[in-house]
Amino acid sequence: MLARIPLPARFEVIVVPPGGPRTKPRALNVGLPLARGDLLTVYDAEDDPDPGQLRLSAALFARLSVRTACLQARLVIDNADDCWLTRAYAVEYAGLFDVLNPALARCRLPVPLGGTSMHLRVRVLRALGGWNAHNVTEDADLGMRLALAGYTVGDLPSATAEEAPNRFRPWLGQRIRWLKGLVQTSLAHGRSPFSNARRLGPLETLCAAALVPGTVVSALVYPACLAAAIWAFLVREIPAAPRFLDNLDTGLAITLFGTGLGALILPALLGCIRRGWGNLVPYALGMPVYFLLVSVGAWLALVELVRAPEHWNKTQHGLARTSRRGHLRHHARAGARKTRRVLIAIRRTRHATR
Fold first, then answer.
1. Residue 275: which region, alpha, beta or left (left: phi > 0; alpha: psi -120 to 50)?
2. Taking residues 12-19, what's their average pLDDT?
3. CA–CA dist 39, 299 (Å, integer)
4. Are 343 and 196 in the same domain?
5. 332 pLDDT higher than 70
């Protein structure tokens, strides 16, 4: 279908040969040998990047160390007003791409990449062998391989608008794929844990463990931990002992519980503030509830990992109602309906005058 569209001469359509796995990273590996420049950027088809993003990326690469192999732009959900799910999704992205990832890049810690709007040095990517075609979260895997090879990821302060799924089933399918890929990444790099730890360093190893396997494990145990905490702290009476040491275990449990909730809420809250999204602050406070849905995706991801490890849950786009692209599509459809009504009226007029 794309090959039939008369694109400008600077575009080239590459057809992926038949075979498997039928994944995005395999398609990227087919295109990698054909890259002619020093820099390479991955965009999803539905992305709407800032017009100056490529120039800004090239300018930053020219100033940064050659050990900075990748720049990750900031993904922003532009259909947050569709429903509560897209609002929570937008808040989650704000916490990740406006707060967490820039902080990791500033500290030169491993960064699980975002899969789109990432800018790479072609030389480094080829040296690493491209993407893992069998991993359905190839971006996180590539971020870990860059860190293991001694490269860093930088922050690109430029926005790329994306469309979030505005229904639960597409959202769940996408989340299952992401979490399944994180498990695949954990298994792939967990085969040599001590060797990888020596290559990364202690702080970097802790960060990688928290962001990749830690994300999945925390999602799996979250409902049970939340239920136990609610029962212990809200339903049952907390006993007060006369001595400090006797209260230590209860105090530590409350501290850990509060820290966990803070880790869910604070990045999203700060992301809303940085984006100027005051109306979405309540959804940042609701992240503990949203994360229950993520837990459902984590458990289903384990099932799919066993049954269909390379299955790629595709996310349908073009359904947004409140994004800029959605408004344009709405106006186009309205114009098409008006044109059809005019044509019908003309036909009826012609028929009546005969």
1. alpha
2. 88
3. 38
4. no
5. no
74 beta partners: 159
DSSP β-ladder status, 68-77 and 39-42: unpaired
Query: What are 92-149's pLDDT values in tens digits?
Result: 999 999 999 999 999 999 999 988 999 999 999 999 999 999 999 999 999 999 999 9
| CA angle at 324 for the pair 322 and 325, rounded to the nearest 5° | 100
Using DSSP, state whether 153 is helix, strand or coil.
strand
d(Cα 125, Cα 39) in Å, to the nearest integer?
A: 10
Q: What's the structural domain count of the chain?
A: 2
DSSP 8-state secondary structure symbol assigned to residue 74: E
Name the token pair of 75.
Answer: 């993904």
C-alpha torsion sign, points 67, 47, 181, 298: positive
Pairing of strands 48-49, 68-77: unpaired
State whether 209 and 347 are in the same domain: no
Q: Is 168 in the same domain as 75?
A: yes
Same domain, 342 and 208: no
Cis-peptide, bond into residue 267, ω within 30° of zero = no
Q: Name 49's bridge partners.
A: 160
Answer whether 162's CB lies under 8 Å from 79's CB: no
Q: Are β-strands 152-162 and 68-77 bridged in parallel, bridged antiparallel, or unpaired?
A: parallel
Determine the distance from the C-alpha atom of residue 304 to the mean position of all C-alpha atoms in its chain, rounded to a whole number: 19
Q: pLDDT at residue 188 above 70?
A: yes
User: CA 31, 33, 36, 40 torsion: positive or negative?
Assistant: positive
> Is 130 in the same domain as 217?
yes
Domain that holds residue 167: 2-315
Q: Residue type at 263? A: A
Nearest-angstrom CA–CA distance, 303 and 92: 25
- Residue whose entry in the numeric block shows the structure tokens 């212990």: 232
Q: Are residues 211 and 346 both part of a single domain?
A: no
CA distance 43 to 37: 16
Q: Are residues 114 and 251 in the same domain?
A: yes
Task: Residue 138: name the closest of 182, 75, 74, 191 by CA.
Answer: 182
What span, in angstroms and rounded, lies between the C-alpha atoms of 327 and 82?
12
Per the listing, tokens 């690469």 go with 61
The mean per-residue pLDDT over the stretch 230-248 comes to 75
Q: Are residues 227 and 297 in the same domain?
A: yes
